Amino acid sequence: MVVNKYTPNMRVFQQDLVEVHKEGQVNSQQGSTFSQVLKGELDKVNDKQIQSENVIQGYISGEKDIHEVMVATEEAKLSLELALQIRNKLINVYEEFNKMQV
Predict the structure, then answer these.
(1) Cβ atoms within 10 A of the Cβ of 55, count?
(2) Is 48 within 8 Å of 7 (Cβ atoms)?
(3) Which stretches are transmembrane (predicted)?
């Protein structure tokens, strides 16, 4: 049985892994923090709510039709519900971390 038969091919993969690891270090330094990502997503939810209010005001003034109002309000509603579910999951994870014994 020849063990070293595949060794030359594995070296190619090792070089690729080293390159990927180096790229990962560069990307992690340039990447956003968790709080920045969370704030950005919450800003998007807020923008949907504001957009929904603007469309409703447009409907009241006669500039928008009911279809646009329904679409905007449902988008705002769904984005808010998703944010609430994510918040609930984060709270559950936080509570689980607090229960862990060190």
Answers:
(1) 21
(2) no
(3) none
Q: What is the pTM of this model?
A: 0.63
Q: What is the pLDDT of residues 8-30, one digit of tens each?
A: 555 555 666 666 566 655 555 56
Return the domain boundaries, the chain: 4-99
Task: Answer left, alpha or beta for residue 32, where phi above 0 means left and psi between -120 and 50 means alpha.
Answer: beta
Q: Which helix (H) or strand (E) is 52 found in, with range? A: helix 34-60
Residue type, 1: M
What count of residues does the chain have? 102
Three-state DSSP at 27 gives: helix
